[in-house]
UniProtKB/TrEMBL annotation:
<feature type="transmembrane region" description="Helical">
    <location>
        <begin position="385"/>
        <end position="403"/>
    </location>
</feature>
<dbReference type="GO" id="GO:0016020">
    <property type="term" value="C:membrane"/>
</dbReference>
<dbReference type="InterPro" id="IPR005018">
    <property type="entry name" value="DOMON_domain"/>
</dbReference>
<feature type="region of interest" description="Disordered">
    <location>
        <begin position="289"/>
        <end position="320"/>
    </location>
</feature>
<dbReference type="InterPro" id="IPR045266">
    <property type="entry name" value="DOH_DOMON"/>
</dbReference>
<feature type="compositionally biased region" description="Basic and acidic residues">
    <location>
        <begin position="296"/>
        <end position="315"/>
    </location>
</feature>
<feature type="transmembrane region" description="Helical">
    <location>
        <begin position="348"/>
        <end position="365"/>
    </location>
</feature>
<feature type="transmembrane region" description="Helical">
    <location>
        <begin position="214"/>
        <end position="232"/>
    </location>
</feature>
<feature type="domain" description="DOMON">
    <location>
        <begin position="1"/>
        <end position="129"/>
    </location>
</feature>
<keyword id="KW-1133">Transmembrane helix</keyword>
<keyword id="KW-0813">Transport</keyword>
<keyword id="KW-0249">Electron transport</keyword>
<feature type="transmembrane region" description="Helical">
    <location>
        <begin position="174"/>
        <end position="194"/>
    </location>
</feature>
<keyword id="KW-0732">Signal</keyword>
<dbReference type="InterPro" id="IPR006593">
    <property type="entry name" value="Cyt_b561/ferric_Rdtase_TM"/>
</dbReference>
<dbReference type="Pfam" id="PF03188">
    <property type="entry name" value="Cytochrom_B561"/>
</dbReference>
<keyword id="KW-0472">Membrane</keyword>
Length: 411
């Protein structure tokens, strides 16, 4: 950045830049108010066009579509050129495209102004095409950088200026891997795990549904942890602060609670089969047998050790049956109450947490797709995602309806 020279018409410092791309394509550098493409300005150079007052030129970025990228009505760039060298001419460098420009930091018609105080982080965008002509960018990204005046009044300022190297291809692949793993975990595995539990009657007899449920949930937790680790490392290496947005904070919470949910699943209480309950079943059979026996038959049999509440032998067979039923009910109530309390408490934690996590997962995926499209200036695939989720939900509801009506159909 150079300060204006004495007696110069321009009162704004100027940004001098040189962009080099190892390949043959158009290249661009933009400045943004918020780090996203809409409402930004960019310098774009097209190698397939001759150097002129408008090439490289200033462009207004109205949106993400090429039709809304329009040439700025006032072209004020100076010392601006775009050149290409070819590998056959210079094997050491290879194919290369170089954009050079000088631009005023502040202009009356600027939508975005840059600040050169050495502290403020100006938000820049960069992009290059897949070739010299196509309007859509092959790669794109963004970065933040402070600007300082390195030449003031024609004199060089020590420690001024900077060489910025933007390496985002590796970072982009990490973000993409993060998104794919998270989408597989929360857009596929967890919904299928819930379906395997809700539609267990469609599985073969036994614990096939339970093994499927556990396997899918365990894989989703593993994928979630790997996904979290990838994006945590990538953000840290790029100098971004952690857990500053809702997406970041919710991702951290989901990673923790999904692991807790898996552990809680392995602590699932056993089925309600105990010795007490088996004893009750045996007493049910005995009670039913006595109830179908005529009083005369009971009286004719020898009844031993049957006593009433006073400890004496009972001469009333119906009273014996009544007392037996009351004792049976008491044992049954005590046994069921003991096991049901444990199971109910477990289900009150496990099921609501599972549905909450999958709901958060759906929100995280759509939000991640939105952020990724803005970060790398790509296509927003949220519409495709919602259609996919909608189809899965309709299929699930259809199977659920079939399972609930299946017993009635058999009757």
């Amino acid at each position: 950045v150079t300060a204006p020279l004495p007696n110069s018409e321009n009162t704004s410092p100027s940004l001098h830049g040189r962009l080099a791309y190892s390949g043959l394509a158009w290249i661009a550098l933009g400045v943004s108010p918020d780090g996203f493409m809409p409402n930004s300005e960019a310098i774009i150079g097209y190698p397939n066009k001759p150097n002129s007052a408008q090439n490289p030129g200033k462009y207004l970025l109205g949106s993400y579509t090429p039709s809304l990228v329009t040439l700025h009505p006032k072209q004020t760039l100076t010392n601006h050129t775009i050149e290409q060298t070819y590998e056959e001419d210079n094997p050491e460098i290879g194919d290369q495209t170089v954009l050079i420009f000088s631009k005023l930091l502040s202009e009356p018609d600027n939508k975005v102004e840059m600040v050169a105080d050495g502290k403020y982080l100006n938000k820049f965008l960069w992009a290059y095409g897949s070739d010299n002509e196509s309007q859509y960018h092959g790669r794109a990204g963004r970065f933040k950088a402070p600007l300082t005046v390195c030449v003031d009044g024609g004199k060089k300022v020590e420690d001024g200026g900077a060489i910025i190297s933007v390496l985002t291809r590796k970072g982009k692949s990490f973000y993409k891997a993060h998104g794919i793993l998270a989408a597989l975990a929360w857009g596929l595995m967890v919904p299928l795990a819930i379906a395997s539990s809700s539609l267990r009657s469609l599985f073969p007899p036994g614990k096939t549904w339970l093994r499927t449920h556990i396997a899918l949930n365990s894989l989703s937790v593993i994928f979630t942890m790997i996904s979290f680790g990838l994006v945590y490392h990538t953000m840290g290496s790029n100098g971004y602060s952690h857990f500053m947005t809702t997406h970041h904070k919710l991702g951290l919470g989901m990673t923790f609670f999904s692991a807790l949910q898996m552990v809680n699943g392995f602590l699932r209480p056993a089925a309600l089969i105990t010795k007490k309950i088996l004893g009750v079943d045996e007493m049910n059979q005995t009670s039913a047998s006595l109830a179908t026996t005529q009083p005369e038959e009971i009286k004719s049999n020898e009844i031993k050790d049957d006593t009433n509440d006073t400890g004496r032998e009972s001469n009333d067979p119906q009273a014996d049956i009544k007392g037996f039923d009351e004792e049976e009910q008491k044992i049954k109530e005590e046994s069921v109450l003991l096991k049901s309390t444990i199971r109910i408490v477990w289900e009150l934690f496990h099921k609501p947490l599972g549905f909450t996590l999958v709901s958060c997962g759906v929100w995280q995926i759509q939000n991640g797709l939105f952020v990724y499209s803005k970060l790398f200036l790509g296509t927003d695939y949220r519409g495709h995602f919602f259609i996919t989720i909608g189809i899965m939900y309709v299929i699930f509801l259809g199977l659920k309806f079939y399972v609930q009506t299946m017993p009635k159909m058999k009757k």
